[in-house]
Specification:
Helix content: 25-40%
Strand order of the largest sheet: 3-2-1-4-5-6-10-8
Distance between the termini: 23 Å
Structural class: alpha/beta
Number of helices: 7
CATH architecture: 3-Layer(aba) Sandwich
Radius of gyration: 16 Å
CATH class: Alpha Beta
Number of domains: 1
CATH superfamily: NAD(P)-binding Rossmann-like Domain
CATH topology: Rossmann fold
Largest sheet: 8 strands, mixed
Strand content: 15-25%
């Protein structure tokens, strides 16, 4: 059993994305003080009154630093754009980690992706690794920075993200993926990510999560 916290001040990067919005929603419902960082945050302002919304790009160090200042923790649900070459996640993570160190923020949870270590078995895994190889390389670059950061980090490896209701019934594996895992609800990923703010079970690890 790890330590637990009741309420924290947390900044969510990628807050306007499909997973990020669920993290913001659940974090607010849980009583956390939420800062939502997004390039296009207009819908967040309307949907979640009481959430501090910061418009910005995670590739802009000054804006990232301003959002991280005063927080207790960071969650990043940033994603890549398409299947082409990408360094968005790697560069953004560098900005986030530098800001965290500057302001003494230690805990960060990243929503990454299964397949970053070539761990998805069978034909499904081979196809995923091939077609998403450039995006996965960017995820991997960001995770490697986490590992070298010296901070308190968790990097989630969800299987294929689905826009389905939360089930509360999912499986987790520290190495590889749970047998037969293919998909996972974004809502369940959001719940699992938020849980990592208050427990140390997977600290310094990269757990896979699937239904």
């Amino acid at each position: 059993m790890g330590k637990r916290v009741c309420f924290v001040k947390v900044v969510v990067f990628g807050a306007a994305g499909r997973t990020g919005r669920l993290i913001v929603e659940q974090a607010q419902a849980a009583g956390h003080t939420v800062t939502a960082f997004a390039r296009n945050p207009a819908r967040l302002m309307l949907a979640y009154p009481g959430v501090r919304v910061v418009r910005g790009d995670a590739l802009q160090p000054d804006l990232v630093a301003g959002a991280v200042e005063g927080q207790d923790a960071v969650i990043t649900a940033l994603g890549t754009e398409g299947r082409g070459e990408s360094s968005i996640l790697t560069e953004s993570m560098g900005n986030i980690l530098r800001a965290m160190k500057a302001y003494g923020v230690r805990r960060i949870v990243m929503v990454s992706s299964a397949g970053i270590h070539g761990e998805v078995p069978g034909l499904f895994g081979k196809l995923t690794t091939y077609f998403l190889r450039k995006a996965l390389a960017d995820h991997r670059g960001a995770v490697e920075q986490l590992k070298a950061s010296g901070l308190d980090w968790v990097a989630l490896r969800p299987m294929r993200l689905m826009d389905t209701p939360a089930t509360g019934r999912y499986r987790v594996a520290e190495v590889g993926i749970p047998p037969g895992g293919r998909t996972i609800s974004r809502a369940d990923v959001a719940e699992f990510a938020l849980r990592q703010l208050g427990v140390d079970t997977y600290l310094g690890k990269s757990p896979a999560i699937t239904d």
